[in-house]
Amino acid sequence: KFQKDHPERRPLIGMGAAIIFFISLIPIPAFTGTTSHPCGTPLVAILLVRRVTCALTGISLLLQAAFFAQGGCGTWGANLMALGFVGATCGWSVFWIARRMGLSILIAGCAGGLIGDIATYAFSGAVLATALSTAPHPQYDFGTYLAVIYAAYAPTQIPIAIGEMLITG
Questions:
Q1: Tens digit of pLDDT for each residue in 85-127?
Q2: Contact 24, 64 (CB under 8 A)
Q3: Runs of H (alpha helix) within the chain
Q4: pLDDT range class, residue 11, cuts 50, 70, 90
Q5: What is the rounded distance in angstroms from the CA atom of residue 28 to the CA atom of residue 59?
Q6: How many CB atoms are located within 10 Å of the residue 74 CB?
Q7: Which residue, 123, 106, 94, is CA-closest to 167?
Q8: CA–CA separation, 125 and 130 (whole Å)
Q9: How many angstroms separate the CA atoms of 21 and 15, rounded?
Q10: CB–CB of 129/145 below 8 Å?
């Protein structure tokens, strides 16, 4: 429907899909021995719309799981919610609010990229903490898991969020 309503944006849809696919494949080592990565979804949501970004994210995540063993089919839903819904919605919303406040497109884009990236990983951390704290015989409670997860990823994710802020701006 979006392509029919906006045929001039077809190349932008292809570019948006490539941005999400390739940016989210960049593994950056995290402190804990795992990896983190930029999102790309705040930028694409600003350039297109949130529902298209969510669809492109879903397709990208399926291809990454199938051909690169990244993420996996078992975590596809959680990853889609984090990247495609939360990251895109928060990034677009912050951009939209900043523009309505009269901020420049550069500042609004920077704010959207930063908050969209942070929101993605805040949501992911909360989902992981919930899963760990509700498992049979959890070692810690939700708050402790959340604090540990955020502390482990902050040294990696904050510079990534700043990079995404600059790229989106």
A1: 999 999 999 999 999 999 999 999 999 999 999 999 999 999 9
A2: yes
A3: 2-5, 10-23, 41-47, 50-68, 76-79, 88-100, 105-133, 142-168
A4: confident
A5: 22
A6: 9
A7: 106
A8: 8
A9: 10
A10: yes
pLDDT at 4: 81
For 18-49, b/e burial (b = at least 16 CB within 10 A) is ebbbebbbeeeebeeeeebbbbbbbbbbbbbb
Q: Which of 157, 146, 75, 61 is nearest to 115 (CA)?
A: 157
Per residue in 52-70, pLDDT (tens digit) is 999 999 999 998 888 887 7
- How much is the pTM? 0.89
Closest CA to 115 of 156, 83, 87, 77: 87
Compute the distance between CA of residue 87 and CA of residue 92 in angstroms, rounded to an integer: 8
pLDDT band at 33 (very low <50, low <70, confident <90, very high): confident
Neighbouring residues of 169: CB distance < 8 A, sequence distance ≥ 6:
106, 107, 109, 110, 113
